[in-house]
Write a structure and sequence with these properties.
Number of helices: 4
Number of domains: 1
CATH topology: Glutaredoxin
Number of strands: 7
Structural class: alpha+beta
Largest sheet: 4 strands, mixed
Helix content: 25-40%
CATH architecture: 3-Layer(aba) Sandwich
Order of helices and strands: EHEEEHEHEEH
Radius of gyration: 15 Å
Distance between the termini: 10 Å
CATH class: Alpha Beta
C-alpha cells in the first residue's frame, strides 16, 4: 500500500495558535477524515502529521505538505505569500506576518477544505 503523508505546520505558543491557522487546522483534519476511507479503496494509506512550530519558524506556519510537497506546488495558479496576522501578533507580542495562499489573484488566509482536498488528490495521482 502506498502512503499519502499530509503534514500541517503551524505556530504554537503554549497550546495556542492564531485564528487563521486554527481554521486551516480544522479544515485539514476534516479533509483527512473524509478522504482516508476513499483513498484506502485505491490502495493509498493516509497519515496526518501536525508539526508545532516555535516563533523562529513562523515563516512555515499555516503550511500544508503532501508527501513533502507544499500545497501551492500542486494546485494550478496557486502561490504562497504572507500578510500581517493580528492574531499571531497578539500571541508573539510583535507585529507578525503569517503565510497565505493566492489562487488566480485571490488571497486566502485560511486554507479552504476544497483546496486541501484538491491538493491531496493531485498528490495521490503522483504516487499511484
Amino acid at each position: 500500500m502506498k502512503t499519502l503523508a499530509i503534514e500541517w505546520r503551524h505556530y504554537d505558543k503554549g497550546g495556542q495558535t492564531c485564528d487563521r491557522c486554527s481554521t486551516t487546522g480544522s479544515s485539514v483534519k476534516d479533509v483527512v477524515a473524509r478522504i482516508t476511507d476513499e483513498l484506502s479503496c485505491k490502495g493509498v494509506a493516509v497519515t496526518f502529521i501536525e508539526t508545532l512550530l516555535p516563533e523562529e519558524r513562523m515563516g512555515e506556519s499555516n503550511l500544508i505538505l503532501f508527501n513533502g510537497t507544499p500545497i501551492e506546488q500542486l494546485i494550478d495558479n496557486d502561490d504562497a505569500s504572507e500578510n500581517c496576522c493580528e492574531s499571531c501578533s497578539s500571541l508573539t507580542g510583535t507585529e507578525t506576518v503569517c503565510r497565505t495562499i493566492e489562487i488566480s489573484g485571490e488571497t486566502y488566509e485560511e486554507i479552504p477544505a476544497d483546496m486541501i482536498r484538491q491538493g491531496a488528490l493531485k498528490a495521490v495521482d503522483m504516487i499511484i
